[in-house]
Amino acid sequence: MMNQDTIAAIATAVGEGGIAVIRVSGPGAVSESAKIFRSKSNIADASSHTVHYGHIVDPQTDEKVEEILLTVMRGPRSFTAEDVVELSTHGGVVAVKRVLELLLRQGGVRIAEPGEFTKRAFLNGRIDLAQAEAVIDLIRSKSDRAFSVAMKQAEGTLSKRVKALRHNLVELLAHIEVNIDYPEHDVAEMTSSYIREKSEEAVAEIDRLLKTASEGKILREGITTAIVGRPNVGKSSLLNALVQENKAIVTDIAGTTRDVIEEFVTLGGIPLRLLDTAGIRETTDVVEQIGVERSRAALTDADLILFVVNAAEPLQADDYKLIEQLGGRPVIVLLNKTDLPVVADTEELAARFKPESIVRLSVLQEQGLDQLEKVIADMFFGGELESADLTYVSNVRHIGLLHQAKQSLIDGMEATASGIPIDLVQIDVRTAWEQLGEVIGDSVAESLIDQIFSQFCLGK
């Protein structure tokens, strides 16, 4: 499904750096680049996967614009399965923009749309849709573990399991089809028990994939974690300690934090989207009131709440109000300032929350943060992450389609048990097969493909 257009875009982040790369893909990638590239070698005849030193020259003025390395990759042995040229210029905004503008000025190349290189790799059959979506997960990874999960999906581990599932369903559909067309032949003893057996095997495999969905989604998107507590208990100090940077202003003045501050941090391989909130209390300060309302909203949306208590002071009315609001939520109580004599009613906290979710720490002395890591891992991953060889399902679209395919198979089994003719049962099995096909892009609407790739950055 080769494209006729030749496209180009800057593939590296814009800004100062050692080098910048312009990626060109399409049938005219080599010939169009040759119009502005001067070297001792003729790149029009260059072999695939070769690098050439030379200069970018303006054909109209013969002015040398830039000194570059040009890499030629002939299709289908390239990322897009088309002819690809990469122009490596000096880093910086001016150099790379001048080269790209000169290339586009020749008339045979257009600027690429977001994600168009990866989209072409998918359309040309080099990767399937699940692998293509893993590319954006690689770019957005917030932790080493999330990167490893995305890398495995990009290599096709999830796709292989989905394809195996679809292959088994195709065999079941074939048996049903033969039994419908030739009822006089009891082919493979096509009975209700046979349909149930094969469907149960498929459902069991889908369940094995879905078992990792919550962990995979966390690794992909991070745990939205709200740091809450009354004013001046050490919330902002905790954020700074976790981020290892002075992101939030810390003073002895209550109400210093007026808005929700957001940062990403990784604890023990688990990505956390930290929300440092304004101290929740009754106040007449109009600006602080807005911050408190935003804190309450963050409290509602959070997957995990870090409830910070000043251990060196008795529990106060604002603490008790928060305790009432946190009932039934995933909460870790952080007894901060334990380097001082502990005065807070720890028995009261132990009665209100699970004892294993109460962590003693001193942000000032950087003590107890390792225990916090352990408690988070216990809460979300049963103490530790699964084996590195496990295929995680992390994409919300994939999770939804797997649930739909599972339900279609369950509907088919229930229809079989009710004595419904197998030609109607076949509809449910085929629906499950098609839903699994949407995961890898074998059966998916063009509008969805456009929507998926529009989320990519330019040059990818």
Automatic annotation (TrEMBL):
Binding site for (6S)-5-formyl-5,6,7,8-tetrahydrofolate: R23, E86, R126, K460
CDD domains from the UniProt entry: trmE, TrmE_N
Subcellular location: Cytoplasm
GO biological process, one term: tRNA wobble uridine modification
Binding, GTP: 232-237, 251-257, 276-279
Known cofactor(s): K(+)
Domain of life of the native organism: Bacteria
UniProt cofactor note: Binds 1 potassium ion per subunit.
Domain TrmE-type G: 222-381
Subunit structure comment from the entry: Homodimer. Heterotetramer of two MnmE and two MnmG subunits.
Listed NCBIfam families: mnmE_trmE_thdF, PRK05291.1-3, small_GTP
Family in the record: Belongs to the TRAFAC class TrmE-Era-EngA-EngB-Septin-like GTPase superfamily. TrmE GTPase family.
Name listed for the protein in its UniProt record: tRNA modification GTPase MnmE
Organism for this UniProt entry: Paenibacillus phyllosphaerae
